[in-house]
Amino acid sequence: MTQKQLSQLLSSMTLEEKAAQMTQLAPVNFGFNCITPLTGPDTGLRVHPKTAASIGSVLNCDNAEDMIYIQTEHLKNDPHKIPLLFMADIIHGFKTIFPIPLALGCSFSPDSVREAARIAAEESAASGIHVTFAPMADLVRDPRWGRVMESFGEDPLLNSQLCAASVEGYQGEDISAPGCAASCVKHFAAYGAPEGGREYNTVDISDNVLRNSYLPAYRAAIDAGAKMVMTAFNTVDLVPSTANKKLLSDILRTEWKFNSPVISDYNSVGELIEHGAAKDGYEAAEKSLVAGTDIEMMSTHFTNHLQELLDNGAITEQMIDDAVLRILTLKNELGLFENPYKDASADAETALHLSEKNRAAARRIAAGSAVLLKNDKVLPLNISRGSGKIGLTGPFAASPYILGGWSAGIKTGVSLYEGLCGKISPDAIHFEDCGDLGSCLSGNPDIPAPDKDFSARFNDCDTVIIAAGEHQDDTGEGGSKAFLRLSPNQELLIRQVHDAGKRVILILFSGRPLEIAPIVPYCSAILQAWFLGTESGNALADLITGTINPSGRLSMSFPYTAGQIPVYYNHFRTGRPLCSENADSRYVSRYLDCPSEPLYCFGYGLSYSDFQYSNLQIFPEDSAIGSLTACITASVTVSNVSDTDGCETVQLYIRDLSASIVRPVMELKGFSKVFLKGGESQTVTFRITKEMLSFYKDGRKTFENGSFLIMIGRNSSDTLNKELYITEHLFEKEIS
Ligand code: BGC
User: Fold this and answer.
1) What's domain 17-349's superfamily in CATH?
2) Is the Cβ–Cβ distance between 490 and 510 less than 8 Å?
3) Which residues belong to CATH 3.40.50.1700 in the chain?
4) What confidence score (pLDDT) does residue 439 get?
5) CA 150 to ligand 1: nearest atom
């Protein structure tokens, strides 16, 4: 359709029809009996057949047959034959499930994230999905919050790059092309900072922190072309996001020039009433519309009150027309007026879903997302070296429920046991079933091993793999937790096997950094598996046996104990930092009973190779002298001093040594993954740009002349450092 035809269509619509376009419901809410998963409370909502006929979009319909049926019936009834938009939560794969986003964050690989999103778009487009509610760009610093699993982690730069890659993957070059889908970035804004990590709780952060830490990833997704934005459940500065004019109008529309639809989160328009931010549905609709929400998800305050709001002058017809035009434009960009079914086809589903090619990509990407946290020379497993068999137990050892939350319509993947059997002769594995893992949701989070002397069963092994962790349902939305340790019986199992003289290899399944300090001493190796998706077991077996060398680096810090939370590497400087000179003083910023640092910091991760860093060089050494130089570079030599080929993630951090507002102790400003053969060295060079040294202050991006500490290293607590004085004029010649 041309822009003119769209405008004509808009002007032919009644107000009721426009309001219906601005409404998204699950099929059951507007007259269809198809079973679709509800991702929030079922309020028993039903709409009048007239409204139903003009509804704008559908939530979480997940197969081609239902989609084609619903679209066909809808087009028979809709007076203007405006196709429905089908939207769903395709978070880390559709049928072929990839690692949870927090794990994908550990890959430090925009290419992997782009590829996973590409495959997810192809598989879900075949099932009739046009818009995916991803990426979740919420920065996370509190592992008590269940949805940290859906974030790429605690760093603004990593988050930004991976969100942008994810949008590129979903959308491709053209969202109307086969296998492409529109991406809806969420949850705008700062949903990842609920107080105490408690789901849906208040978010209260300063404007400077909001802009410097929390907003960049949403912005990066939008700059990458994301076609929609979803609001958040939380308040920002005491105004719920869905009615937050500063966020939705001032920042999103005016500053960032975003001109595509904004959708509320699930019933978040209605929840303004429970927030106490609107006295009734009329006011909830008014405040959301005025702030800039275009589509109401899973509630009907727009359809119920639009006429009244208009009659009272609370909103203008122009506002409604702008919103509806944005929705129609998106439908048009997807090509739905010409082909309302887009890629939906049962044959395409059969061909694409869980195809060999997709599973091979999932296996490779999964292996790149696990993080080796500890290794006392026990991994990779050398089966011929040890005496006896390899023991295998723990609640996740043979469990296929390792996909991680938000795995639409598919429940199981390759278990660790299956994966190991594909790599090692099953005869070399001594598997002992220790029973199911409990969960907080089931009310029974701590199930004991079958007998007291369980560890004695491993007499024929000197090494035992224990697959432990948390139930996948104890993570994700509504998965906040106050206790982050393994269940007491899992800890007991690890201790007992260790005390029986075995070397314990812990494979840790979780959707968040858990509190593992109490069991680290009992483990010879720890591999953080997160939830790696369909190919979990195969990917883990590749790593355990050394077919693949671990390369994941933590995207989120692991606390020593929950009492340290939030603990994140890029925290702000204080007036009394702890350092070697004042380590004995009482009056420094620290805990009396626990280190200030995390157990494992951001960027940390081991490899079977041994990498060394040397020769940090900054050019020019002094920017005042080098004013004729077009750019500043920092380089370092990275050497693989082992015999094992491997991949290292070289990380560039910068500290602004003095500024007009307090700045973080360090911030990731670049990273580079290099593959080094055993014995090989490489010089890795980063260009230092003005953008890297700038920050938001009072709503504006600013650069201040001064000294900066340039740090390059293997993780956020192990870097080579050099100080440099940098003035703005140096960047006048900057080549972009
Ligand atoms: C979640 C969103 C999700 C929506 C639709 C909400 O409960 O917060 O992330 O996209 O449901 O399923």
Assistant:
1) Glycoside hydrolase, family 3, N-terminal domain (3.20.20.300)
2) no
3) 370-551
4) 81
5) 9
Confidence of residue 629 (pLDDT cuts 50, 70, 90): low
Sheet containing 57-59, strands listed edge to edge, beginning at the edge strand earlier in sequence: 262-263, 228-231, 182-188, 131-132, 85-88, 57-59, 23-25, 296-297
Q: Which helix (H) or strand (E) holds 501?
A: none
pTM greater than the 0.90 cutoff: yes
- Residue with CA at minimum distance from ligand 1 atom 6: 266
Closest approach atom of ligand 1 to CA 40: 7
Probe target for ligand 1 pocket from 265, 296, 299, 406, with the most ligand atoms within 8 Å of CB? 265
Report the chain's terminal Cα–Cα distance, integer Å: 37
The residue type of 670 is G
Q: What is the identity of the amino acid at 478?
A: G
Identify the H or E element spanning 391: strand 389-393
Supply the pLDDT for residue 732: 73
Give the contacts of 732 (CB within 8 A, at least 6 positions apart): none
Q: Average pLDDT in the 210-230 region?
A: 98
List where CATH 3.20.20.300 sits in the chain: 17-349
CB 403 within 8 A of CB 412: yes
Query: Who's near 206: CB < 8 A, 6+ residues apart?
Result: none
Write out the H or E segment, with its range, that includes residue 23: strand 23-25
How does DSSP classify residue 270? T
CATH level 3 topology of 370-551 = Rossmann fold (3.40.50)
Evaluate: CB of 39 within 6 angstroms of ligand 1.
yes
Gap between the Cα atoms of 48 and 52, Å rounded:
6
Secondary structure (3-state) at 528? strand
DSSP sequence for 225-255: T--EEEE-SSEETTEEGGG-HIIIIIIIIII
pLDDT of 490-534, one tens digit each?
999 999 999 999 999 999 999 999 999 999 999 999 999 999 999
Distance 345 CA to ligand 1 centre (A): 26
Which residue type, as a one-letter code, is found at position 568?
A: Y
The pLDDT score that the predictor gives to residue 386 is 52
pLDDT category, 387, cuts 50, 70, 90?
low
Residue 237 known to be catalytic:
no
pLDDT over 90, % of the chain: 89
* pLDDT for residue 205 is more than 90: yes
Ramachandran region, residue 290 (left: φ > 0; alpha: ψ -120 to 50; beta: rest): alpha
Residue 410: per-residue pLDDT:
85
Q: What is the CA radius of gyration of the chain?
A: 27
Question: What CA–CA distance (Å, rounded) separates 346 from 319?
Answer: 40
Query: Is a pLDDT exceeding 80 seen at residue 625?
Result: no
Tell how strand 646-656 and strand 667-676 pair up: antiparallel
Closest residue by Cα to residue 211 from 259, 250, 264: 250
Distance, CA of 373 to CA of 605 (rounded, Å): 6
| Pairing mode, strands 23-25 and 632-640 | unpaired
Q: Determine the distance separating the centroid of ligand 1 and the alpha carbon of 266, expressed in angstroms.
A: 6
720 forms beta bridges with 712
The SS3 of residue 84 is: coil
Rounded Cα gap, residues 733 and 736, in angstroms = 9
Number of neighbouring beta carbons within 10 Å of residue 644: 16
Amino acid at 714: R
Q: Which atom of ligand 1 is nearest to the CA of 186?
A: 9
Fold category of 611-733 in CATH? Immunoglobulin-like (2.60.40)
Cα–Cα distance, 17 to 249 (Å, whole number)? 24
- How close is the Cα of 214 to the center of ligand 1, in Å? 19
Using alpha carbons, select from 558, 556, 525 the residue that is nearest to residue 543: 525
